[in-house]
Specification:
This protein has helices at 5-19, 45-59, 66-72, 76-90. By secondary structure, the protein is mostly helical. The chain has a single domain (5-90), classed as ACP-like (Non-ribosomal Peptide Synthetase Peptidyl Carrier Protein, Chain A, Orthogonal Bundle).
């Protein structure tokens, strides 16, 4: 079953806050088209590694090179689109 992109974006906001143990940031604070890495949220390369592992574990999707990671983690919308497109190919 294919996830609706808006549902996936909302789900990812919650997972990002949980995965990165944000205490002062809520899912509603994450803006879809704002820069994820190095932006207002303070996400750095170590955080990206944690998110990559969460995406692999929760969605069965691997992000296994830096170029792909830079495109995928540009903002929340690009991350959600990447997962949405690749969920079809992994059968979720």
């Amino acid at each position: 079953m294919e996830k609706d992109l808006n549902i996936l974006i909302h789900e990812l906001k919650i997972k990002i806050v949980d995965t990165l143990h944000f205490e002062d940031i809520t899912p509603d604070d994450i803006v879809e088209d704002h820069q994820l890495v190095g932006g207002d949220l303070g996400i750095d390369s170590i955080d990206v590694l944690e998110l990559v592992m969460m995406i692999d574990k929760d969605y069965g999707i691997k992000i296994d090179n830096k170029e792909l990671g830079e495109k995928v983690f540009a903002n929340l919308t690009s991350l959600a689109r990447f997962i949405h497109e690749n969920l079809k190919s992994v059968g979720n």
